[in-house]
């Protein structure tokens, strides 16, 4: 599986990167603008604190599973990943939904391992279990998510659930999602989890549950890509928050409403590291 992922992403890198390296300045910016299809984009130089590329960064979009960055951040702040959680029937997927991780009622997991399932394999069930464990109920946890978003300066973000399942009013924007992403990866344990390619999930009793592969296809195949969180629903289309670092240079990327986050991300990271750009720009 990993070799196939690497080959797929390698083709993207070669196809998109070849012209960017040789295309200067405004021409490269114009070219990447024509290639990138996402409705909202923010490519952010973490060192210079400036936008390298932006598109509709204040437009509201459903975040899908990038929601789980806020879930993980809040869980960490309240538990420091200590403790254990017993899975309840109410944590499991609704009838007709395909579970992302095979959790069963009565299974006991460490908080840390459920956060791994949350961020590596994007488990919707882990999000519900963690929310209930941390705040007593999912509704109470969501209230805290919204309060934390406001503390971070998010003005166009409103959460309705902790996992990103499409719901009326569950929205963010690229500018806000960058703030949430930066806050999450500033926590070293969360940053490490978001950069983990795979993980074997066990209950606290030692029962093997599932081998989890990171949903971030660029982790490994694309040079420099580190912590990231993916998302997708039919309504939101592809969403993505990722950090790419080469040497001392770090670039964050936020995508919302993308038909293909992989081609969009490769084009934008190639632009940031291989091409030339005008730089500058106001903060998000």
UniProtKB/TrEMBL annotation:
One Pfam family this sequence matches: Peptidase_S11
Domain of life of the organism encoding this protein: Bacteria
GO molecular function: serine-type D-Ala-D-Ala carboxypeptidase activity
GO terms for biological process, alphabetical: cell wall organization; peptidoglycan biosynthetic process; proteolysis; regulation of cell shape
Keyword Cell wall biogenesis/degradation: yes
Residue spans crossing the bilayer: none
Family classification: Belongs to the peptidase S11 family.
Protein name: Serine-type D-Ala-D-Ala carboxypeptidase (Penicillin-binding protein 5/6)
